Amino acid sequence: MKIGYARVSSGEQNLDLQRDALAVAGCGMIYEDEGVSGVARRRPGLDQALATLKQGDTLVTWRLDRLGRSLPHLIELVSALQDRGCGFVSLNEAIDTSSAGGKLVFHIMGALAEFERALIVERTRAGMTSARKRGRHLGRPRVLSGAQLDKAREEIAGDRETTASMASLLGVSRSTLWRALRNRPSS
Known about the structure:
With 187 residues, the protein is α/β, with parallel strands linked by helices. The chain is built from eight helices and five strands; from the N terminus they run E-H-E-H-E-H-H-E-E-H-H-H-H.
């Protein structure tokens, strides 16, 4: 059985063109999402379409970008369909994963997505290394300054404040203060 999926991301767009194309393609059921971005992982219409599919069924979309915006997400969805024994057809791009040519195109897309992810990881690591070399702090912003930590250490060591009271004065939890003191060498 062919099950169609149509999506528009804004209320001003119209599903009629997609509905007509999916009906001509022989879809027995058509599920829709209106006003839902392709970036969204959870889409009610898509979730229903995927839940309806049985082994041997085919999910049909008008275009690839109706199913998902990112190549890795598309690959993930189509791989999950194949694992369940279901096919995928994109009408505009003439991709049909039940054919050898369609599978080839999708495998090439998968290889490109993997390459893209590897490049992103490399660029991210290079950027982080460069930032560290320049002395930039990576991650969440520090909530306590060096001066605050030095003062806290002095007050706690002089028995003028407890860790709990000092943390309260600084507006952080006791564990945050302990961790910051542990990670900052004494001056």
